[in-house]
Amino acid sequence: MPYPTDRERDRPWVMRTYAGHSSAAASNELYRRNLAKGQTGLSVAFDLPTQTGYDPDHPLAKGEVGKVGVPISHIGDMRRLFTGIPLAEANTSMTINAPAMWLLALYVTVAQEQADAEGRDRDEVLAKLTGTTQNDIIKEYLSRGTYIFPPAPSLRLITDVIAWTVHHIPKWNPINICSYHLQEAGATPTQEVAYALSTAIAVLDAVRDSGQVEPTDMAKVVGRISFFVNAGVRFVEEMCKMRAFTRLWDEITRERYGVEDPKARRLRYGVQVNSLGLTEAQPENNVQRIVLEMLGVALSRDARARAIQLPAWNEALGLPRPWDQQWALRMQQVLAYETDLLEYEDIFAGSHVIESKVDEIVAGARAEIEQVQDLGGAVAAVESGYMKSQLVASLAEYRRDVESGGRVIVGVNKFDTTEPSPLQAEGAKAIETVDPAVEKQAVAALEEWRQQRDQAAVDAALARLREVAKTSENLFDATLACAAAGVTTGEWAGTLREEFGEYRAPTGVSAAAMSGDAAELSRVRDRVRATGEELGEKLRILVGKPGLDGHSNGAEQVAVRARDVGFEVIYQGIRLTPEQIVAAAVQEGVHVVGLSVLSGSHLEVVPQVVDGLRAAGAGDIPVIVGGIIPPEDARLLTERGIARVFTPKDYELTEIMDEIVSVVRERHELPQD
């Protein structure tokens, strides 16, 4: 998005909604409707199997296909996704990280096919491609959890994508360094700025040191780096955060990388406002939250976002409907076109209050960046667990403030009396649901694809990919060949898994300090100790993340609080099969299994754990579940034998621990005290 060069009215930012579900065909229809409503950019949500490099028929994909995004298994799916959408004229953001190279290769291949169909020069079309691949794997280890490979080969993939795009698709943003999920994982404004910029330093150092880009071209690289940030409801603080971000980025790119062009040093960023800050309780309040959060990144012209996507009011309940997404888009359009916001220069320039807060964030972020650099940089700070433990501790402190009432959340811990909501009236379909048949259709279509493609070409392309992976050669051309040959997402990622290995990131739980109200903690701790004495052993809880859902923040906080009240906690991190969870529960002899699912796959994966425990002769171990679970689904889970269902409205973690003790006592027929 170009910047005005004088005092003319500022140009509106790119307006997007994060969208995609069920299938490429259904998502294409949604995109075309959204564009017709005035959306000026596309933001593609991929489903979890695609994000983690699995095909729909992989065991870990069960229950996850098409739930939180669109499944893209091969070039045929990418063609369908963009049918009728000229890519040379589109502005597309793809929220994809570990397999970012693969999805970008599919996108580029479709653009080349469109050029051929129109009789246009391929290079001319590629030179016009605009958009972003998120491609930030470091924050995946810290917060979102959709990593595949260890940090070093992951950084190589990022570097290769950046180098290839600079030479071949110069208007594309090859990485969207993403502080968004850091805030959701507990980052303070200072940590969000510091850890995102530490990631940027690691990436730029890797590109510079790879030899794939001439030193004179580093300004081109810096000029294509973009950021994706989170905007919370404390909009003055968020605005100051972005002004601090802007100042530090200008400083780092000038001093560390010698970029002289001030335009290349501009902080170019897009925003999604804080989805995990939306509430299940009184969800209509989310509308004003979203608007206020948008203001934090729109009010300050000198640090204004150049792309904004807003969640819908009901994302704490489930998948938004097209109408809900339209409402979110209209919020942006009213601000951009009806108000006078874009008519003025920066309205906060010279404010001593704003400058003081910006200075505070800048100073704190500088110190934290230095700490990360002293540890060896962002990758080393991931591998040591330092950054993860800092985030877990910050989130624990935030939750303590919420539970004590020090931080007010309207409708949750204050002003919680309410009238019935007409938005959720009986008979109203408040969220979109994905037909369970979607997964079967995707698996069948994948099998058909494998039958009709040229298997010899596929084998040759994968063999070439494997050979290049063993060298330091750029992997993008080999990946392009895989895309054209009809290789699947799982095959591309599987081949690189064989060469690079897989990775399990530190959880950060062990380093988190004790949190929660001391008196209430003491009371529940006494119950845990007494129950253990009655059973003759210490109470043990297994906290599990079945399936591909990488949103581990809630599970980590449950694990921390369970430890604080005296449970022995078994928490092995994300991405476990139901079979692995059952095996661990039996081996560890746990007294309760707690499952966390936020991806919508609860009806598929949770009953598998219950059935597995029964089959293993451990059906007496109660299973509880927490996540974004609609009331009807909660009833179904209870009928399937789930002992308790907790949703985001259950924010008091110590109360949840108390209830878990009651579940254990019920199962062992002990009197409730």
TrEMBL record:
Pfam families: B12-binding, MM_CoA_mutase. It comes from the Bacteria. InterPro entries: Acid_CoA_mut_C (IPR006159), Cbl-dep_enz_cat (IPR016176), Cobalamin-bd (IPR006158), Cobalamin-bd_sf (IPR036724), MeMalonylCoA_mutase_a/b_cat (IPR006099), MMCoA_mutase_a_cat (IPR006098). CDD domains: MM_CoA_mut_B12_BD. One of its GO terms (molecular function) is methylmalonyl-CoA mutase activity. Its cofactor is adenosylcob(III)alamin. Keywords: Cobalamin, Cobalt, Isomerase, Metal-binding. Residues 538-667 form the B12-binding domain. Belongs to the methylmalonyl-CoA mutase family. Heterodimer of an alpha and a beta chain. This is Methylmalonyl-CoA mutase. It comes from Amycolatopsis methanolica 239. The lineage of its organism: Bacteria, Bacillati, Actinomycetota, Actinomycetes, Pseudonocardiales.
